[in-house]
Amino acid sequence: MFHVKPGKRRLHLFDLDGTLIRGSAAAVEISRQLGLVEEIAALEEGFLRGLTPDEFAVRARALWSELTVAQVTAAFEGAPWLDGIREVWADIGERGDRCAVISLSPDFFVERLLGWGADAAHGSRWPAVPFTEQIHRPGILDARAKVRIARRLCAEYGIEVADCVAYGDSMSDAELFAVVPDTVAVNADHHLGGLSRYSYTGGDLREAYALVQKRAA
Questions:
Q1: Spatial contact of 112 and 30, defined as CB atoms under 8 Å apart
Q2: Which listed residue, 3, 8, 146, 157, has the most CB atoms within 10 A of its CB?
Q3: CA 163 – CA 182 distance, rounded (Å)
């Protein structure tokens, strides 16, 4: 798919909601399975107005009290994913590079992407489905946690932060975009205006990925 050129190893960091999933989010897709589209829309609006990620999680957990594993599977499989995700991640691996997903969404959703070829997938720590426990607030990620996790992955893989690429779409990615040199705003909102090296609008991750590869060529 892409010409492989030797060089420094890179770590590609992908956001999930609004980035790999175009125009939607894990919480929206899960709520759709439960017939709670309006309720989650109101909660998402609250998040945009300043609701903290941990409080969002607590309220979403209350909405999803009857959630089943089958519904999570249906939400994952039915989400509007960008085309080409598996192909991009396969190419990253063939180059000897690494790719990871870091998302504020529940880990029981995010970690399913390990099966698509991600080297790592980090989401907020939620209780197992079906729920028998409440949200543990310290386990819910925020924008700063994305930076911490990225630095930890760099140390684990022996890759410099200067050799990372970040892909994101919104305010939860802004802090990571501030420390990573190569950044791609994917179907992004105004929060990433002026922060990204590249900007992509469309439905195919291969095209967003190609922007970075052209520069590296």
A1: no
A2: 146
A3: 8
Residue range 11-23+81-216, CATH number: 3.40.50.1000
pTM over 0.85: yes
The residues spanned by each domain of the chain are: 11-23+81-216, 27-77
Query: What average pLDDT does range 83-90 have in this prediction?
Result: 98
Report pLDDT digits (tens) over 24-82: 999 999 999 999 999 999 999 999 899 999 999 999 999 999 999 999 999 999 999 99
Q: For the chain, what percentages of helix, strand and coil (3-state, to nearest 5) are there?
A: 50, 15, 35
Q: Which residue has the tokens 């919480």?
A: 27
Distances (CA, A) of 40 to 25, 27, 31, 45, 46: 10, 7, 6, 8, 10
Give the rounded distance of the alpha carbon of 59 from its chain centre. 21
